[in-house]
Amino acid sequence: MTVEDEGPFLREAAEWIATLHSGAVTEEEREACRRWRRADVRHERAYVRAESLWHRLEPVSGRHRPEAGPVLGKVLGPVRRNRRASLLALAGLLGLGLAWWPLWSLNLTSDYHAAVGEQRQVTLPDGSSLILNSGAAVDVDYDGDERRVILRDGDVHATVAPDPDRPFVVATGLGSARALGTRYTVSLRDRNMAVVVTESSVQLCAAAPPPPARHACVDAHAGQRTATDGKSIKSPRGVDVRLATAWLDRRLVADDQPLTTVLEELARYRSGLLRFDDLELAGLRVSGVFPLDDTDQALALLADYLPIQVTNYTRWLTVIGRR
Amino acid sequence: MGATSYLKRDLVAVLYSDHHGWLLGWLRKKLGCSQHAADMAHDTFVRVLTSSSDLQGVREPRAFLTTIAGRLIIDDARRKKVEQAYLETWMALYGDCAAAPSSEELATVVELLTEVAGWLESLPEKPRQAFIMSRLDGLSHAEIAERLGVSVSMVKKYVAQALLHCLALNETD
User: Fold this and answer.
1) CB neighbour list of residue A217: distance below 8 Å, 6 or more residues apart
2) Residue A272's domain is classified under what CATH number?
3) I need a surface site. Which of A72, A215, B39, B171 has the fewest CB within 10 A?
């Protein structure tokens, strides 16, 4: 910082720049601005700094203007709105069927996260362990009376070290799944939190059951699956646990599912964009086992027996359409 | 000048030998990828070396390093997001058959947009919109006033507020 610091005058300089670019600047205002700049060397410095920043933005107002606005809109999103919802709304406006995830915004600030396409094993201080699926993110809070794992997004498989005094909980915004000693998987997608129990049992409680019910909890036992949207809870039903947690073996198992659901799932394992039109692909259904280690191969398998075409434009963009 | 930078290099060398290993571990835990962590640790020390902060005044070197590294992680994440949004927008605007932008051109515009997004992120909606409409779209204050439903003098305040905000953040970079 020098003695002749222009800092205090930056606000006035910014106001002058705004005035000059108002689209209705008068000659009197231009002259007043020139007088202000001449009045003090710090005014001039402040003005030059503000003006040079304004000019640095020339490329995004000139030739890259058509892309710049939508990009900023997507990256910044409307303030205080669900960011993902707004991204999808924007994609809708552009007439695109998009399957991608703003993973970076969600996950880099969490304690542990698995990169896209990777699976990650984490051992917790009490000896419990977690396996995070591609793109999953968790925070771990062991400071209180219970052992809490907060799942932000994706799938986590927990193998819990028994400790009767300190329950083990996997919590999301939609509910919490509590166990004493067990193995279970919690998945968070949009407005759905699902629990699949591999061993022993788990109590799932909804985060916000509608009144008058103050608590909404169910117990799910080994071999069962249950889920909550935050309000109500589905009754536990028997599932093939190996199939329901096939991602642990790096496989995706589809049993007569819509192709678009399978593509959305595959997109979670790819770092580039996977683009398709929901309407165009509606009606196509898939059964099969697909490798998650190599989603290009999975897409090739799909193209082998469905009337679809897979086109790679760059490593960032793959488009699926009807053949 | 020469003496100052010599001293600074020494201070950075001490920081490096005392804390590089620890920072690498911290980043590895944060990022879950050792290659990426090594890159980020490297970038962190480059940033320390080229920054104008007074290293002798640093009392908590690890907090100092993790603050810089944390900011780099956020910048990096934002850059990836901008890059993806850019390509997606390009495809939507120019279709599947247009030639993709050259990697150099892409890098330049992504860099600039990443910086701008970083500035505008912490601004309230209306000043942000007013600034984008004025600077990027070249709309007059009267047109912006109509779109935002505010007075013309308010638009001027918004644009100036946004510009000042960008200037302040530009300085701390």
Assistant:
1) A203, A204, A205, A206, A233
2) 3.55.50.30
3) A215
Interface probe for A, chosen from B89, B104, B122 (most Cβ of A below 10 Å), is B89
- A191 and A285, same structural domain? no
For residue A14, the chain B residue with the least C-alpha distance is B160
Q: In this complex, do B88 and A98 lie within 8 Å of one another by their Cβ atoms?
A: yes
Both A180 and A240 in one domain: the answer is: yes
Higher-pLDDT residue of A94 and A229 is: A229
| CB-CB under 8 Å, A50 with B163 | yes
Quick check: B141 and A24 CB within 8 A? Answer: yes
Distance between CA atoms of A151 and B54, rounded to whole angstroms? 39
Q: Is 80 exceeded by the pLDDT of residue A282?
A: yes
Residue-wise pLDDT tens digits, A216-249:
889 999 999 999 988 889 999 999 888 888 888 8
Sort out which chain A residues have CB atoms less than 8 A from B140's CB and list them: 22-24
φ/ψ of A228, rounded to 5, equals -140, 150
Q: What is the number of structural domains in chain A?
A: 3
Q: Do B136 and A17 touch (CB under 8 A)?
A: no
Asked if B156's CB is within 8 angstroms of A15's CB, the reply is: yes
Write out B117-142 in H/E/C secondary structure: HHHHCCCCHHHHHHHHHHHHCCCCHH
Does residue B61 form part of some domain? yes
In angstroms, the Cα distances linking A72 to A207, B89, B148 are: 34, 10, 18
DSSP assignment string, B141-164:
HHHHHHHHTS-HHHHHHHHHHHHH
Report ipTM for this prediction.
0.78
Percentage of chain A lying above the pLDDT 90 cut: 31
Q: What is the DSSP letter of A153?
A: E
Using CB atoms, pick whichever of B96, B135, B142 lies closest to residue A319: B96
Domain of A276 in residue numbering reads as: 250-322
| Both tokens assigned to A150 | 């907060």
